[in-house]
Amino acid sequence: MKYSLMDFQDQFPDDRSVLDYLFASRFPKSFPCPECGKTDCFYPVEKRRSYSCSWCGHQVYPTAGTIFHKSSTSLRLWFFAIFLMSNSRNGVAAKELERQLGVTYKTAWRMAHEIRKLTGGRPPKFKGEVEADETYIGGKRKGKRGRGAAGKTAVVGVVNRSGGVVAVVAPVVNTAHAMSNLLKTTEQGATVHTDELNVYNLVGKLGFKHHVVRHGSGEYVRGNCHTNSIEGFWSQLKRSIDGTHHHVSAKHLQKYVNEFAFRYSNRYASEDGTTMFALMAGRAPLPRDAAA
Q1: pLDDT above 70 covers what percent of the chain?
Q2: Residue 163: what pLDDT?
Q3: Nearest-10 crossing angle of helices 15-26, 75-86
Q4: What secondary structure, in 3-state letters, does the chain show?
Q5: pTM for the full model?
Q6: Does the pLDDT value for residue 53 go beyond 60?
């Protein structure tokens, strides 16, 4: 299912339509007024981002606590930024948002980082066949190459061959970080495919079925044993960062990783009639901490 620019313009022609969407998501008709207990009683307040109870006058604010909290930027611009970011496979740079939205670079940069918070969180624990691997993100540096290269940031990840992925920025690739991520993301009893790196030596002892593909010996596929799925995700992540953002600091890298993991994990959503925009916009009414 495709969601075009025309669809967006029809659904959200102005700020009020966005506010109505947020209100309907956070405060359904069955929601009782916190003051008088009446239901189905709220009406929009003119020139304010609030709705008032027709019985007692109590007001609720759909944007309170969300990524839009205390933002003076138009709500429609916020949703248009979500539309742009959700419709791009390789992400959207803050400079491009600046041009498309007509806002300052500082505003565009902040909006992009807030929107990325909508893609955080962990999916239900993986079952069945999974792959665990690690990668390093960063520009070219002099010195050691490959694992442990100076100046690069480590990321450990687990991909479910059924579709989902969870990736976490780590200060260093070691057994503690790799196994912690595996235990948090995967149910014991699952089959875990890894390469021969020694940080995965405990996989079998932690209640998983462990299959190893030995890259150092030139082996990349042995029957059903491989790590091609997660390596494909790493490739997409690196191409997107290098091609769109060019450089991402270690401080903010997790937000970018979450964005691309969310996009990867929901890449088949359109087959069920759900668009990427609907998934991201559907998380917009969540409190900022819950969304992240």
Answers
A1: 95
A2: 86
A3: 80
A4: CCCCHHHHHHHCCCHHHHHHHHHHHHCCCCCECCCCCCECCEEECCCCCCEEECCCCCEECCCCCCCCCCCCCCHHHHHHHHHHHHCCCCCCCHHHHHHHHCCCHHHHHHHHHHHHHHHCCCCCCECCEEEEEEEEECCCCCCCCCCCCCCCEEEEEEEECCCCEEEEEECCCCHHHHHHHHHHHECCCCEEEECCCHHHCCCHHHCCEEEECCHHHCCCCECCECCHHHHHHHHHHHHHHHHHHCCCCCCCHHHHHHHHHHHHHCCCHHHHCCCHHHHHHHHCCCCHHHHC
A5: 0.91
A6: yes
Helix axes 75-86, 276-283, angle to 10 degrees: 140
Q: Find the range with the poorest average confidence among 147-156, 224-233, 262-271, 278-287.
A: 147-156
Q: Are 164 and 123 in contact (CB under 8 A)?
A: yes
Tokens, residue 25: 């998501």
Of 44, 21, 40, nearest in space to 31 by CA: 40
Fold (topology level) of 129-250: Nucleotidyltransferase; domain 5 (3.30.420)
Helix axes of 253-265 and 276-283: crossing angle, nearest 10 degrees: 130
Class of residue 20 by CB neighbours under 10 A (exposed 0-12, middle 13-18, buried 19+)? middle
Q: Indicate where the chain has its CATH 3.30.420.10 domain(s).
A: 129-250
**Tens digits of residue pLDDT in 141-170:** 555 555 556 679 999 999 999 889 999 999
AA letter at 185: T
Residue type, 99: R
